[in-house]
């Protein structure tokens, strides 16, 4: 199958995307990634090469702004042989001046632009996979439903008006609005391709390649990193209680999402299980005893209680479709910390 398929992936230098590309190349897929500059494209190519991967299977196209109208038109016109389109470009940011202009509109428009380009120019595209978020599935903050079950059919009840309240809710709202727009697009346009949406929770785990700049980790891994750097920064890390998944499992889910027939038309909630910052702290001091003296003791009594804020995730349907066992919290934390050390 892989020799015939040509896979396009947007946001190729992203945390999740690099792991996806690694898996694609290992499986022999010809892969084309969108990057923001030629420099980033060349850098990724050299990372693949130094990682012992067949870098000749990877090429890139420069797309400076994935949210711009027609952003992917040229890429699809130039590569009419693309058969799978993975839209994995999904930035996480809470630092915005205008929630509507900087978060809500770009999220919706970026998704619709990609779908329009595929419909118009992706003549050979058969499968589309889009990275969404657990934020589109469950309610948060005042909309949280502690103890209530959520599954692949659930939606965060947030409205556009509520999303405009603050940047955090703006981010949460942008994920729901973009995904709702996507499913409506599919319903209205009935394209030739089939779509799958991947909804990850907090994504932990090591970077796909060696980390040169440890100051710029993905937002989820900062939950782990903030505990490691608390001593040096002389500040108490913010504590969390939520759900986690390892990045390597998220990448695997994206590949299986287009390879498996039963994944077509589905939402996949990729979550291994609950975590608290206290549990992460315990794993670090138990498995990395040398770090114990560098890390200030975490006052777990100050941390949020899982049962006070979190819905109960039932992702049995996703697990059945994917058919593999997810990496547990200990391995995910250990591998992340080992790389950062």
From TrEMBL:
<protein>
    <submittedName>
        <fullName>GRP2</fullName>
    </submittedName>
</protein>
<dbReference type="GO" id="GO:0016616">
    <property type="term" value="F:oxidoreductase activity, acting on the CH-OH group of donors, NAD or NADP as acceptor"/>
</dbReference>
<keyword id="KW-0560">Oxidoreductase</keyword>
<comment type="similarity">
    <text>Belongs to the NAD(P)-dependent epimerase/dehydratase family. Dihydroflavonol-4-reductase subfamily.</text>
</comment>
<dbReference type="InterPro" id="IPR036291">
    <property type="entry name" value="NAD(P)-bd_dom_sf"/>
</dbReference>
<dbReference type="Pfam" id="PF01370">
    <property type="entry name" value="Epimerase"/>
</dbReference>
<dbReference type="InterPro" id="IPR050425">
    <property type="entry name" value="NAD(P)_dehydrat-like"/>
</dbReference>
<feature type="domain" description="NAD-dependent epimerase/dehydratase">
    <location>
        <begin position="7"/>
        <end position="265"/>
    </location>
</feature>
<dbReference type="InterPro" id="IPR001509">
    <property type="entry name" value="Epimerase_deHydtase"/>
</dbReference>
